[in-house]
Structure formats: structure tokens, C-alpha cells
Specification:
The protein has about 475 residues and is mainly alpha-helical. It folds into three domains: about 80 residues, Orthogonal Bundle (Fumarase C, Chain B, domain 1); about 250 residues, Fumarase/aspartase (Central domain) (Fumarase C, Chain A, domain 2, Up-down Bundle); about 90 residues, Fumarase/aspartase (C-terminal domain) (Ribonucleotide Reductase Protein R1, domain 1). It is about 60% helix and about 5% strand. The protein is built from 20 helices and eight strands. The protein has a two-stranded parallel ribbon. Strands 3-4 form a two-stranded antiparallel sheet. The longest helix is centred in the N-terminal third of the chain and has 37 residues. The chain is elongated and about 100 Å long. The N terminus is likely disordered. The protein binds arginine.
Length: about 475
């Protein structure tokens, strides 16, 4: 849909009767929303069709009028889709632009469309219809990314890497297990959008300007035609609250939070200092001055754009907080943050799903890092505790052994049995199985643990739910 705006001369057709002088040019520009709300056009037409058909069914307007409206709106939709529709700044917003064009085409029938309706319930309906469709796209995008992560996790269900706390090597985990953590996060994100969708999916139309309308309307019929689960049950609430938009933006903020964390990891891991992974060249750029550079631009931008989405959430919350009931023009400001949130999120999900398919893993580097940081020290403490030593004492014994190994610049598993036994007499030669990376991984064999068998099972469960 292309967007053209142009200033028509100053006769404003929708409400100018009351005014003695034309609206100032700058004010027109300041108050118009057509520069961005043209995106709602298809949904505006969908809502108008349902409204007109209901007016006809209730004998509020004639069936001839309904037919004329249907034909006119169909033509207008075609014009918009073909990029031939001229959006006029003088007509303020998407609603008045379409209504004026309809009236130009079909005359009085077009003027009857607005019977029993206000732009206040109209815009709330349009935004909900748009957001419902967008939410479905987001849910699909989340699934696609989860599938891409699952495939990578599958390929690395037993690839050893160091697990970190405080960014210090903590215990060995598998790369598959690490990736499955994000699959879980995105799964909850999907649930949040599905839940948010239930609250989006109620019909404001019928609330009219704020108090309802004196025409014998059938709101349930309009709701059914538009696929809403029900009607907004208080007219003041219907036209004024944008909590559903805030909720969507919050859910989007959390997705961005999750992807920002993964981005931070990809940035670290792809740095030559870590060299755990390589991001495909098509997601990176070089430097104009340093020939050796390959910069992880996409993850960096995801991390950066997370702040942008948080900003939209703050904007929407702040937009709402001071508004007395019911509709205020402030609400026109809901659209740009909401549109940009959706655009940012959808493209981020798409590019991320692709990027994860372009990740190659340096297994040797991961394994080496896992074996260097005393990652199996906890396993040695657990080993002693299982032999009867209280865990706190075992922890202390192992701490002393680690200090010794650090001084000697060797790994725990390099210490001879006799040396280990100086720290604890309980240690026998079965200790070496415990000190290996695989021994450590395989021992964590319960639901949620990092044992490769458990990671396999977690992947299978996740696949079944997708
Ligand atoms: N463009 C307006 C918006 O986005 C439509 C509703 C205007 N209603 C009004 N009474 N001025 O909110």
C-alpha cells in the first residue's frame, strides 16, 4: 500500500459546519493521523462492511444502501491495494478519507454508513482487528524461530560447552541444552501473545462516541461477522482503553529481552576471544578501516532495537495514565508506537530464525573452554558427599584441591590419585569418571537436566507441541 497525502483546500467536510474559520495549516498537520493510520485501511473497510450489513439487517438503513456501500467499499479497497488511492491530509485520518471517497462514489448511501457509529468506536475496532492479525503473525514467527533453534539444538544435543554463572565457567552443559532454554522462553512468549489475543478480540463498535447509540443495533451480529469472541461490555471503556495495545507491547518487550540476551551471547561467542560459534557472513558486515573485522551487526541491532521497543511500552503506558474517561485525542498517539513495535518484532523474529540456521559451532573451542575452568569441581564435591562427607565440608575440600591445581596449572583430572587422596581419603580411582566432562553431563539425568539423553527428550517434547 503506498501512501500519498496532499493538502486539499480548507473545507473540512466532516465537521466544519460549527466553525467560523478554517483550521490553521500547521494544526491540520499536527492533528492529522493519515500519515500513519492509512495502514488500518483494510480493517477499516472490513469493520464498515460489518457495520453496514448490521444496519441493513436491523432495517436502520435500506438494503439498497447496503449494496451500494458494499460495492463502493470493494472498489475503494481495490484502489488502495493498487496504490491508486489518494490520501488527503485535509481529511485527517483513514476513516474520513475512506468515507469521503465512498460518498463521492455512491452519494447519500455513503453518508448513511456512519449511522449509529463514531470514529471513536471505529478506530478502536480497527486497531483491534489489525492487532489481532498482527498477533497471529507474531505467534507464527515465534514458532518458526523455535523450530530453527530446535534444529540447532538437535544437532548439538551432546556438544559440550561451559555453562556460565557470573560469566565464569561454572559447570559443563550441552550447547543443545543452552539453546533449549531459549526455546522455553519463546514458548512462554507465544503463550503470552495467545492470552493477549483473547483480550484483544472483543468488539468496541456500538459504543459510538462514548455512551452507546439510540439506534436498535445488533452488536452481537457485528461481533460475529468480524470474528470477535464477544463485545466490549462498557461503552466508555470500549472507546477509551488501549490496555490491549500496551499488553501486546509488553509481550513484545519480553520477546526482545529474550532475544537481546541471546544476541549478547552470540556477540561474545563469535568474538575470537571465545570463538565458540561463527555467524554466517550474510548476517555480518566488515569495517571500512580494519580489514580483519567481521562484525555481528544483526545481534547488535537486535540488542539495540530492544531499547526501542521498551521505549514504545513506556510511551503507551504514559499515554494512558493521565486520561480521564472516555476518548481523548491522546489516543491517536497509540498507533506509531504500536506499529513500530510490531514491525520491529516481526522482522527481528524472521531474521533471527534465518540467522540461527546460519550458525556454525566450533566444538573443539567449546570443549576446551569447558575443560579449562574446573567445570567439574561441583561433581567432585557431590562425589564426596555421596561417600558420606557433609556437602559443606566436601565443598571446602574441593576448593583447596582447585587452589592447588590452579597453582600447578593443571586440571583436577590431571592430579594423580595419591595427590587427590591427600585432600580426602574417601577418594578412590572411580573419581576420574566423575571428573570428565561427559561424566558430569550424564550424571544430570533428570527432567530439566543437561544430560544429552534429557536434552533429546526435551527437544522431542518441544517438537510435539509445535
Ligand atoms: N484519528 C483518530 C484516532 O486515531 C480517530 C478518532 C478520532 N475521534 C475524534 N473524536 N476526534 O484516534
Amino acid at each position: 500500500m503506498t501512501q500519498k497525502t496532499s493538502a486539499l483546500n480548507n473545507k473540512n467536510t466532516s465537521w466544519s459546519g460549527r466553525f467560523n474559520e478554517p483550521v490553521a495549516e500547521l494544526v491540520k498537520k499536527y492533528t492529522a493521523s493519515i500519515g500513519f493510520d492509512y495502514r488500518l485501511a483494510a480493517f477499516d473497510i472490513q469493520g464498515s462492511l460489518a457495520h453496514a450489513q448490521m444496519l441493513g439487517a436491523q432495517k436502520i438503513i435500506s438494503l439498497d444502501d447496503v449494496q451500494a456501500i458494499e460495492a463502493g467499499l470493494a472498489e475503494i479497497l481495490q484502489e488502495i491495494e493498487a496504490g491508486q488511492f489518494e490520501w488527503l491530509l485535509d481529511l485527517e485520518d483513514v476513516h474520513l478519507n475512506i468515507e469521503k471517497r465512498l460518498t463521492d462514489k455512491i452519494g447519500d448511501a455513503g453518508k448513511r454508513l456512519h449511522t449509529g457509529r463514531s470514529r471513536n468506536d471505529q478506530v478502536a475496532t480497527d486497531v483491534r482487528l489489525w492487532l489481532r492479525a498482527t498477533t497471529d503473525q507474531v505467534i507464527a514467527g515465534l514458532k518458526k524461530l523455535q523450530l530453527s533453534l530446535l534444529d540447532l539444538a538437535d544437532a548439538h544435543f551432546d556438544t559440550v560447552m561451559p555453562g556460565f554463572t557470573h560469566l565464569q565457567v561454572a559447570q559443563p552443559v550441552t550447547f543443545g541444552h543452552h539453546l533449549m532454554a531459549y526455546v522455553e522462553m519463546l514458548g512462554r512468549d507465544g503463550q503470552r501473545f495467545a492470552d493477549c489475543r483473547r483480550r484483544i478480540n472483543h468488539l468496541p463498535l456500538g459504543a459510538a462516541a462514548l455512551a452507546g447509540t439510540s439506534y436498535p443495533i445488533d452488536r452481537a451480529l457485528v461481533a460475529k461477522k468480524l470474528g470477535f469472541d464477544g463485545v466490549c461490555e462498557n461503552s466508555l471503556d470500549a472507546v477509551s482503553d488501549r490496555d490491549f495495545a500496551i499488553e501486546f507491547t509488553f509481550a513484545a518487550s519480553l520477546v526482545m529481552t529474550h532475544l537481546s540476551r541471546l544476541s549478547e551471547e552470540l556477540i561474545l561467542w563469535s568474538s575470537p576471544r571465545f570463538a565458540f560459534v561463527d555467524i554466517a557472513d550474510r548476517f555480518c558486515t566488515g569495517s571500512s578501516i580494519m580489514p580483519q573485522k567481521k562484525n555481528p551487526d544483526v545481534p547488535e541491532l537486535v540488542r539495540g532495537k530492544t531499547g526501542r521497543v521498551y521505549g514504545h511500552l513506556t510511551a503507551l503506558l504514559t499515554l494512558m495514565k493521565g486520561q480521564p474517561l472516555a476518548y481523548n485525542k491522546d489516543n491517536q498517539e497509540d498507533k506509531e508506537p504500536l506499529f513500530d513495535t510490531a514491525d520491529t518484532l516481526l522482522v527481528t523474529l524472521e531474521i533471527y530464525a534465518d540467522m540461527m540456521r546460519g550458525i556454525t559451532v566450533n566444538k573443539d573451542k567449546m570443549r576446551q573452554a569447558a575443560s579449562e575452568g574446573f567445570a567439574t569441581a561441583t561433581d567432585l564435591a557431590d562425589y564426596l558427599a555421596k561417600k558420606g562427607m557433609p556437602f559443606r565440608d566436601a565443598h571446602e575440600v574441593v576448593a583447596l584441591a582447585v587452589r592447588y591445581a590452579v597453582d600447578q596449572k593443571v586440571a583436577l583430572s590431571d592430579l594423580p590419585l595419591g595427590k587427590l587422596q591427600q585432600f580426602a581419603a574417601e577418594i578412590s580411582d572411580d573419581v576420574y569418571a566423575v571428573l570428565t566432562l561427559e561424566g558430569s553431563l550424564n550424571s544430570r539425568n533428570h527432567i530439566g537436566g543437561t544430560a544429552p539423553a534429557q536434552v533429546k527428550a526435551a527437544i522431542a517434547r518441544a517438537r510435539a507441541t509445535l
